[in-house]
Amino acid sequence: MKKILSVTLVLTLMLSMLSMVSFSADEYSSEDDIISGEYNYEFLEDGTIGINRYLGTADEVVIPSEIDGYKVTALHRYCFAGFKNLKSVTVPEGVTRIGFCAFEDCFNLEELILPDSLREMHFMYIDETKLYKTASNWENGVLY
Questions:
Q1: CA distance 73 to 97
Q2: 66-67 and 70-75 as β-strands: parallel, antiparallel, unpaired?
Q3: What is the C-alpha to C-alpha distance for residues 46 and 44, in angstroms, rounded to an integer?
Q4: Are 8 and 141 in contact (CB under 8 A)?
Q5: Which residues contact 134 (CB under 8 A, 6 or more apart)?
Q6: Which of 20, 37, 92, 100 sits CB 3.0–4.6 Å from 77 for a disulfide?
Q7: pTM to 2 decimal places
Q8: What residues contact 131, with CB distance under 8 A and at least 6 apart?
Q9: Is pLDDT above 80 for 114?
Q10: CA within 13 Å, CB half, 92
């Protein structure tokens, strides 16, 4: 129990020390990117795709498990960053990786539903979100 609380506190401190990063949607685009509907994505080595950037405006997003017939397996760094009105994101089963600061500056984020398939999650920088700041989302020092 103490170990979980200690780890949570250390992670919180580390996250709070990260500097704010300025970016634009074009900054993380390359010539290999494909735009389909509300998503900018790229192909991964295994034939699946990773989402580089959400291009929509919805405050509640359910990420599709497939885009253009290809399985979504990753959310890359900053893919939702800066969407201040975003309230809810549902990540589909099959996604195994979420990149650095994927939800940075999503201050109104209240709900983040993650799949059982998730295996790798980099710093998400969610300490300024409603999700993080709502006491009822915490139990014994663990965010649920």
A1: 7
A2: antiparallel
A3: 5
A4: yes
A5: 110
A6: 100
A7: 0.71
A8: 109, 110, 111, 112, 137, 143
A9: yes
A10: 14
